[in-house]
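Thread: quick sanity check before group meeting

JM: Hey all, I'm pulling together slides for Thursday and realized we never actually wrote out the predicted structure for the chain we discussed last week. Dropping the sequence here so it's in one place. If anyone has concerns about the input, flag it before I start.
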Amino acid sequence: MDGQPETTTSPGAARPAQGGPARPQVGFHHRDAVRLLYILALGSEEAVHDGRIFKGEKRAMAIDFLVRYPDYLADELLTRFEAEGDPAALEAASDIFDADEPDLRTVAMVRWRRGAFQNIEMPLSILAAHGLVRPLKQTAGQRRHDFMVLPAAFSFIERIEREQPSLRWYRSRVELVMTLAGFRSGSDLKGDQYLHPEYRDARHGTEIPSIKERVLARLQSLRGR
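JM (edit): ok, ran it. Output follows.
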């Protein structure tokens, strides 16, 4: 299993479908599996004897959204810069636009009932088949879906980065997103995303639109101060 960082706008994005979001194209399942693996591995906690735990499918979706939408991520970084005066946040947002990431690396998600949606069943089954991730059984009354990230996942990531150095982009990007997301709940993270009218008001079953121009104007204004 391998995959390349996203290099075209909205490849494999789900399309509107009656009764629910459509599944992404089959050719992108392995790419989605690689991205999901980095999110689950680098966002996991609570080391146990047979791996680490990633808490919450909704949290995974919220982190995935920021990986897939560089313009929304840049906006979050600018908010941190304005709130905390963190120059690293401004620099990271600048790097996103200097590399044309909103045009080159966006992988669109569909707006559905609870926000940005991606059916992770196929990517997750790929990871499970390779012995990298295992969904945890829910206990009585538990509504959150957690995942066990097995030790083989971390050695697998190291191997694919040696074999395909371009995949290190996933590591750097998820690590950047985690500086904002930390171990906040999925509901909390999605709450931030609903603050964007483009996200909040997108019609169900359609792709969430870019906010590139608005964020770029904000960046230029902050750079000019």
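AS: nice. The CA atoms of residues 94 and 219 lie 7 Å apart. Residues 28-224 form one domain.
JM: adding both to the slides.
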